[in-house]
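Appendix B.2, paired examples.
Example (i):
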Amino acid sequence: MKILLTGANGYIGRRLLPILVMQGHEVICLIRDKRRIEIEEKLVEKVQFYEADLLKPEQLQDFPQDIEAAYYLVHSLGSSSKSFQQMEKDTAQNFVEGINKTNCQHIIYLSGISNDDSLSKHLSSRKNAETILANANASLTVLRAAIIIGSGGASFEIIRDLVEKLPIMVAPKWLRTRCQPIAVRNVINYLSGIIGKKESYGKIYDIGGPDILTYKEMLLIFAEVRGLRRYILTLPVLTPRLSTYWLHLVTATSYKIASSLVDSMKNEVIVENEGIEDIVPQELIMYSEAVKLAFDRIAQNEVVSSWKDAFASSKINPELMEFVKVPTYGCYVDKRTTTFERDRLEVLQNIWKIGGNRGWYYWNFLWKLRGYMDKAVGGVGLRRGRRSHDQLVAGDSLDFWRVLVADKKEGRLLLFAEMKLPGEAWLEFKISKEGGKNKITQTATFRPQGLFGRLYWYSIYFFHEFIFNGMMNSIVNYQEKERESVVTR
């Protein structure tokens, strides 16, 4: 079967893609920038890419015609609370207009459980997208999921932050709300198994795991799995706004996502629309076992995808991916170079392992301080870490940076800053040859906004002199004396 897969570089899409290929399907990935997705070499011949932005109808003129089914795995949760509902509406409508030009017979949409009468803005938006998709010529199957538990998932990482950082939690009353979490591999099995099943056409199914738990119970079970003792006190006095600030400051999530999540946590997400278990039978994984499986993935450095890597969780403009060359006009530049005798691959590996658990090689406490300061003013801070301890691809989040270019063959890594700044900043590492010797070039570029941006650059110039020079030299000379932890954040 020929399938169109939207959101192929998202948390679910990256995991679903190889499964569909292994099932013998021919997959076309609708993606804004194919440089942002990395797939195994054995899959390349069976996967095509269609570059387009669903928010830009003019880019959808060449919509693939001969597809038989399509997955709609698109959402705008991380966008501004004032705009994400309209964005999700426009995206769904543009998708329907494109799909109606094709031979598609079946659309599968991964939505959220929305059985309450009074829904949050997030769940209302998802439900509205269902209505729009149902107007397509192709038959629609909706899978409404509860909280998805898996390595790299937003819910998993938020719970992990709360449990591992807070021995005692004074938490909002929404911790008493019930939900039915589901393991990510059960979600993938449902998605891959329902394709083409005519008995599912026009149906809505809720999907959840075997446990019905309160959020408080989920935190305590997570702590038990990790061998931690935690105490939780719920207070009714924490308003939604205070709850949002609490979640944002304690966890790696952005303020925008925290706001949407807090709004949604008033709604119980319990399975009511059953029936998919008869069409796609499988053994559902207990919540505690799903947590264990997630940590097995992390320990083996096999986190396939992370919610943090989606542009929806970022303030970055996707068009910045086109800045293969960093802008120079109106910019301040700190450029440093040095030659080295060491093996090129060893230095390259040090560059590719920057950030996360390893840190930034020199005066790491100042990098952490900068992360705390950024978090305090609503920025992303350092808590996003990195998806893998030694792999980077374009689009990955890396602490408070976003990877724009990760080309090992050319020896080039280009990062774009996502911390709160009075301007835009890039950090680039490049290894080249000069006079028969290896040379590393480290370039920090800052494009200020207004007078405050210029004052900001000069205020930190003194620190750059020490930090950037020390970082470059440490990258060249750093050697692993013992096996580092591969647990990624």
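Example (ii):
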Amino acid sequence: MAANLSYWEHQSFFDPVDVAIIGAGLVGLTAALYLKQRQPNWRVVVLERGALPSGASTKNAGFACFGSISELIEQEKRGDVQPVVAARYTGLARLRELVGDAALDYQPVGGYELFRHEESALAVECLSKIDYFNDLLAPVVGRAHTFRDASPEAGRFGFGGVGTLLKNDCEGSLDAGRMMRTLLSRAWAAEVPVPANCAVQAIEAPAGRAVTVRLANGATIEAGQVLLATNAFATELLPGLAVAPGRGQVLVTEPLPEAKLTGTFHYDHGYAYFRQLPDHRILLGGGRNLDFAAEETVIPGLTEPVQQYLTTLLHEVVVPGHRPRVDYRWSGVMGFGPALAPIIDWVKPGVLAAVRCNGMGVALGAGTGWQAAEMMSQA
């Protein structure tokens, strides 16, 4: 018997369901909404371990991006990059369709990639690949030119030491907090309860029987199917999954009205990224590549080397000559693995995993949730 749960709480939140979704992030909530569209009579519950979604969905930078040229060059070494970019691009389209641009505060500002003068060799390589990736992505984005040389625009941003600037005209930005708040409210409106502080301790999936989800508060839920949508935390419940955590650290400055950084910006093969927020603050994150081993953790926290790297980048490149106060610092945890595509597969009888977005959760989340809902509604 669960500790101190009332009859009403058992009936409303922990009664048997058709689908129990573990994780109230972008994948879990979009899957719940898509499931209710397909199976409106199904009982669906979304279980969240924290007071708010605990991974990256409320802690990301709000980039509606699908890959800079330097990132795509590296990713192409790992396999066919076109279907992966297609999944990211269509995932963003699904997110915008499901939530709406106004609710997302989606802004089609484009995405820039910066190269400092000392990175001229990489800049030349990326410039030489513009036509190649434009041709490769034309069937995906429906336009002939995704990338272009935007170096003449570099001067208007006031960056320090930047020699080359490439632009992806198909990218944009959004408000991650408003995105998640909208998804949460729509889940409740669709009669999908999303109880917080409901950490799952175990999933028991005997063949031919309902799946039992055991919670840390002592409650259990019987479900016809379970969707594991915890991304980087997936191996806590299913240790065999090929998912490893990657912590991303972020800072946000005081308002800087004099800065005019319209767009989203990528640097250092996409491992660093920044943008100016609507209240004129600058958000800057990244640095995971300084020490991959140290950042392969689900433990939130900040490290001195990464914070120093971000601060130096802020002072020397983003707003050279300024030393703005930093008002916010945090970290979020992403899920990575050996393949670029997410894991969307049955991993136990009645248990589907939809995890491992490889740092592209905003782009892949809604598409992953949609695919998971399709598979579960047809099972």
